[in-house]
Write a structure and sequence with these properties.
Layout lengths: L8 H14 L7 E4 L10 E4 L22 E5 L3 E3 L13 E5 L12 E2 L3 E2 L3 E9 L3 H11 L2 H7 L4 H7 L4 E3 L5 E3 L12 E3 L2 H9 L1
Parallel strand pairs: 1-2, 5-9, 10-11
Antiparallel strand pairs: 3-8, 4-11, 5-8, 6-7
Length: 205
């Protein structure tokens, strides 16, 4: 998924290459985007429809009828180190990354003026079955009052899902680690998660 101008096309081609070379499960790659310029030759495009809310467009993927079967969404600012398809087990609701690098008691249902509604989950990799009603409820719940939820959670879908007690599961810790916060062990984890600044340096050498 790519929307806005935060990430240039190099992020897209890099993650496509990593998916094709690392993941062992059969897959079909799509790019959900509002600007496919220069990328049509690399991947099939699903245009982002008009969405007037200041909120993560990932929520649209959970709408009933959007897709079929099993789906995975990957953020662009991450590096796939090795196959993680063995961790894709069907459960009700969405499955996301546990932010095991955070101090749990400082984030779990903690709200501060500086940081807002903090979260212990990370949707950089999210797995779900498109026909699951519990997944549809994420979209339906947001659309019940989209302006309110956009403002309350600063546009962040992970905060929204956790604080609104919507149904989710978490992958085992081994699926990912934080480039900034660790723990740093490429042999133990499947994916390295970056903030944009760190990943920009990686892409540009």
């Amino acid at each position: 998924m790519k929307w806005g101008d935060k990430f240039h096309p190099g992020y897209v081609t890099k993650i496509i290459h990593e998916i094709k070379s690392k993941l062992k499960v059969q897959n079909k790659i799509y790019l959900y985007t509002d600007n496919a310029d220069g990328l049509e030759r690399y991947v099939d495009i699903i245009p982002i429809e008009n969405f007037p809310y200041n909120f993560n467009r990932r929520v649209n993927l959970f709408r009933k009828g959007f897709g079929k079967g099993y789906s995975i969404v990957c953020d662009l600012d991450m590096k796939i180190i090795k196959d993680f398809s063995y961790l894709l087990n069907e459960q009700k609701g969405i499955t996301v990354i546990p932010s095991h690098w955070k101090k749990f008691e400082d984030y779990r249902f903690v709200h501060t003026e500086e940081h807002g509604y903090r979260t212990t989950i990370n949707g950089s990799i999210t797995f779900w079955r498109a026909e699951d009603p519990m997944v549809h409820e994420i979209y339906n719940h947001f659309m019940s009052n989209p302006e309110y939820y956009s403002e309350k959670y600063w546009g962040a879908i992970d905060r929204f899902v956790e604080w609104e007690n919507l149904y989710y599961n978490t992958f085992p810790n081994e699926i990912a680690f934080s480039h900034v916060l660790g723990p740093h062990d490429d042999n133990e984890y499947c994916v390295e998660l970056f903030n944009r600044g760190a990943y920009q340096k990686t892409l540009e050498g």
